[in-house]
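A note on notation is needed here, since sequence and fold are reported together in a single record. The reader may check this reading against the record printed directly beneath this paragraph.
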Amino acid sequence: MRRFALFIVTLFVLLTSFSALAQVPTDPTKTGELMSAPPGTLSTLALPSSAVTNTRVGSGDVLRVTVFGQPDLSAEVGVNDKGFLTLPLIGGIDVNGLTTSEISAKVADGLRKGQYLKNPEVSVEVVQLRSQMVSVLGEVSRPGRYPIPGHMSVLELLATAGGLTAQADQTVTLLRRKDNKTGDKSPSNSESDVRIPILLGETSATERSPLDVELNAGDVVYVNKKKLFYIHGEVNRPGSYPMEQDMNVMRAISLGGGMTQRASQRRIYINREMPEKGVQEIKAKLTDPVLPGDVVYVNESLF
């Protein structure tokens, strides 16, 4: 009887352990799995755990400097507002704009020249990255400011922000500041801030996809809200619908389920908000364009 009871207890412990293991969630940053997003929106790969590479350093960043074999010379220190890092024995070092590998070489050179160590081996890691920040706003799951871990593209930023919401438009706007010096000849170096529209899913056989464009510190990515038009009256499915490229009255009626038997093709009107004039009623033909915010009304036949 005791043996049977011991067997039951052992079996229960094993089953509980397997159940707990089965419930451990996978980490998409390590497996490369698709991050969840609402149906019909962009799904993007999560950033791999190795994304933080040889990034550039600036004011406000916190670094871990390790001198191998010399724990007294190793430290976790911050970069001050002038871009200097203060270390034992060496003192202040200008690290603003340098990569972690360049800082490692500079610290090793300082220890060598000061005759503290003959062949120092130095490693520098970024503990907190505050100088290289970008923002993502609008229709994303987690809007806010994010650090650039070495290199980050628009697509990777959208993934980091949790993907798009169900209300997201297919157009993303990249706002680049005029003082954001990158050294290239792109429009980002013009005299004023530049707004760069990016169409999601846009691809080119010869050019790099705009979603793969590398972000610079200070960039702002704004995910626009879906633009809508409205259709009412003698249609089978009146309501609001997302805009499409080259939308016209015929396509709008089609999205609205087509006309009812009482509808008149000659009595279709568009109510449109006009600058400084308010809402204007426009008699429309099937080939007339429909703009965001338009209200298409299909009237019934007089006979």
About this structure: Residues 16 and 22 are 10 Å apart (CA to CA). The radius of gyration is 30 Å. Confidence is low (pLDDT under 50) at residues 11-52, 181-191, 203-207.
